[in-house]
Write a structure and sequence with these properties.
With 148 residues, the chain is mostly helical. Helices cover 82% and strands 0% of the residues. It is built from 4 helices and no strands. The longest helix is centred in the middle third of the chain and has 38 residues. The radius of gyration is 18 Å and the shape is elongated. The two termini are 17 Å apart.
Length: 148
Amino acid sequence: MTYQEKKSIVSIISAILIFVSFSAYKYVQYPAEGMEPTEIFHYWGSFVLVLTLVSIFAHIVISIFFNIVFRITTGEKEPNFTDELDKQIELKSHRNGFFVFILGFLLAMGSLVIEQPVQVMFVILIVSGFISDVTGSVTKLYHYRRGV
């Protein structure tokens, strides 16, 4: 298995663990029914903001840890060059991830149009962000295994 494949697998697993653990942590803090709209917006705004910051920080730490473990176990360095295949795979994975997020964004806005609660919009946005992250990593793994 190549470095890129291993890195994609680690990215998929870490994205799932970060999202599930943070969501479980924030679930117990969910405001009770009948709360003021400002409290609900505060909860969802902080959920999105803190999840973004925690996710970025955790991905950086996991990436550093992965590179250290990879170097120790294989004795190889992280490849410090990218060829045309790597660039093409990166572009395809970004395209697929962005496509999934845009679909989620449109669904979230559609939920407001059909007069669903605001919580539905936030849940759709958060889940589409998570699924787009996983989709990008899965696309990378697929293309590194099967080719472009």
